Automatic annotation (TrEMBL), chains A, B:
The keyword Transcription applies. It comes from the Bacteria. GO terms for molecular function: DNA binding; DNA-binding transcription factor activity. This is Transcriptional regulator. InterPro entries: ArsR-like_HTH, HTH_ArsR_DNA-bd_dom, HTH_MetalResp_TranReg, WH-like_DNA-bd_sf, WH_DNA-bd_sf. Residues 8-106 form the HTH arsR-type domain. It comes from Adhaeribacter aerolatus. SUPFAM superfamilies: Winged helix' DNA-binding domain (SSF46785). Keywords: DNA-binding, Transcription, Transcription regulation.
Amino acid sequence: MGVTKTENFTEAQNQLASLAKALAHPARVAILQYLLKQQTCICGDLVEVLPLAQATVSQHLKELKSVGLIKGEIEGTSVCYCINEAVWEQAKNTLLKLFTLPINTKKCC
Amino acid sequence: MGVTKTENFTEAQNQLASLAKALAHPARVAILQYLLKQQTCICGDLVEVLPLAQATVSQHLKELKSVGLIKGEIEGTSVCYCINEAVWEQAKNTLLKLFTLPINTKKCC
DNA sequence: TGTGTTTATCGTAATATTACGATGTAGATT
DNA sequence: AATCTACATCGTAATATTACGATAAACACA
């Protein structure tokens, strides 16, 4: 079916999954890394940096924007994209919460 | 096209993306949380815990296994799945590395 | 006003993912 | 051996993702 049964999982599980989904493409990882590194951040740069067409980059930006990890402000003709620091911190904590859960020692393996 | 141009991104970017992809479904998040919490870990439990058919659960387990986050050992008739702690730690560090990158203060937004 | 520049959106093709019933397989049990 | 149990795999349908050319929209500038 290709449709995730979100309604049968917890809010937290769905949230973590959609955050992970946003990171689940190398282009989006690259975009985030670039935005973290750069001081100015204009979309045009990204099209030059990434091995993808302009339309595709725009699509990836849209996805990152929809989960809130980045925000874009119109700056004359171009758009200034940057990390949304609040959401970024929140995302970090969400992931950390999963990875710092205690691992019970298993009886079997 | 639906096919990711992995060859144009760095090894690290692709690795992070495929790790994230493994986490990008609430069922897989739920599986990991369950495995972290449980001391014994038999697949049959998961089918009862998750709101999904056995075939679907098996499919999700396969994906988690393929990125190495979990490992399964045959234990008589059933299979003992558990977190692969080494890979788990590595995954944690991979993600942390992204999220602890310094955020440059932006000139624009 | 007309023309370029920059980014978003549309349309669409190729491929991937999600889900499940049916079936296969392997060890356990009678 | 026949059967049960537990899990994997196959086949398939529905839907989502990825990518890009074409086009639209918004602003800048001559």
